[in-house]
Specification:
single chain; 266 residues; Rossmann fold; OB fold (Dihydrolipoamide Acetyltransferase, E2P); 2 domains; five-stranded parallel sheet
Length: 266
């Protein structure tokens, strides 16, 4: 079996090289990992190199480590084993609770040699297990872990929104949340789409989602949240991509792999 490959995504060069050297000591069979200096570079390199293991810093310029993992799940080529992911983070109680809840491995900065050795042993065992298992089941496990990691803690959930205050031209319009068909993230804004048209808000989708009723609104893509009763059907095209059609709008909305489980037959 070929030696596994790895990619380290870390925006601090000293920490990236320290992790690389520590890996060389406790995993000598692992070729020197490639390095990515930010989230955008991490996504690009991961899709080009298709590594077996990813060490992702949670907070990076551009995309965060979690955003990189979510986009990789959507873009990863079929038939290729999804990488094992280890998140690297500064000490944060909430982050650590989230990792443990999702059963995802993590390392604290600065990374200690002893803790890294435990992680390496776990990765080696998982790689051996993965070689003998079904690739689809491994991807599903990874997707389930990422979904659990993305879910906000119930105790930290803010109050539910009843109205959206959105810019329409030179006016601020109050849009009842019940009338929103879907929310769509753009570069700097979120587009609020209703039967009457669209309007912009400055709140990010990440901040908005915990304020929405999860039974009423489903996130179907990293940049899209749709009202459930507005979903007419889910369609899988010949390319394998999944889309939903809407009751009161003509457009089709893409569904990522991370959220495709919402549309499995009951």
């Amino acid at each position: 079996m070929a030696a596994p490959t790895a990619l380290i995504a870390e925006d601090e060069p000293l920490l990236a090289n320290a992790l690389r050297q520590a890996l060389a000591r406790c995993w000598p069979d692992l070729p020197a990992p490639h390095l990515a200096a930010n989230g955008d570079e991490a996504l690009e390199q991961a899709l080009a190199l298709l590594p077996d293991v990813l060490f992702l810093d949670i907070k990076m310029p551009g995309r965060s480590g979690l955003e990189v993992a979510g986009e990789l799940a959507d873009e990863w080529p079929a038939g290729r084993p999804f990488p094992l992911i280890v998140f690297v983070t500064a000490y944060d109680d909430y982050a650590l609770q989230a990792f443990e809840r999702a059963a995802i491995d993590y390392l604290l900065k600065p990374v200690s040699q002893d803790r890294l050795a435990v992680t390496v042993a776990r990765l080696q065992a998982l790689l051996a297990q993965r070689a003998a298992s079904d690739q689809d089941s491994h991807l599903e496990r990874a997707l389930a872990q990422l979904r659990a990691l993305s879910a906000p803690a119930v105790e930290d959930a803010p109050p539910r929104l009843d109205y959206i205050r959105a810019a329409v031209g030179n006016k601020v319009k109050l849009i009842p949340v019940d009338e929103v068909i879907y929310f769509e993230a753009t570069d700097k804004y979120v587009n609020v789409v209703s039967a009457e048209g669209s309007a912009l808000i400055r709140t990010s989708l990440r901040e908005l989602i915990p304020q929405l009723d999860g039974r009423q609104f489903w996130q179907i893509h990293r940049g899209t949240v749709v009202q459930v009763r507005q979903i007419q059907a889910a369609l899988r095209e010949e390319s394998g991509k999944l889309f939903v059609t809407l009751r009161d709008r003509p457009e089709k909305l893409a569904v990522s792999r991370l959220f495709a489980h919402l549309f499995r037959q009951m």
